[in-house]
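New to this. Look over this protein:
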Amino acid sequence: MQVLVDTSIWSLALRRTESQLSKTEAERVAELRDIVKDDRARLIGPIRQELLSGIREQPQFEKLRKQMRAFSDESLTAEDFEQAAHWSNECRRRGVVGSGVDFLICSVAISRQWRIFTADTDFRAYAKIIPIQLSV
């Protein structure tokens, strides 16, 4: 199964050193390596943007940008964005609020029948309402 890798996982792997990782975080990075090795990792542009945002030093930005160029962005459709808005509205009606990017991730994963690999606990709340499959 293909896996849409969330910003939180890419960040652990590419923006932190191994010595900065907890045991759980190191296990997630190892799992990401396996997913990448098996050519199952998928990416969307908004995740790329989130990952590259907030980097203060230009050389670090360029290094990360180069690393991420190994992964192409999944093409997004109007339906992906419309469905993301639907999921956002549905969750909000039930008291769960999230970001637009999070719901776009959910929408893309559902429509393509992919798992979402994330360290972001917000996705557990979404999963109680919308039919996403998580690798957490």
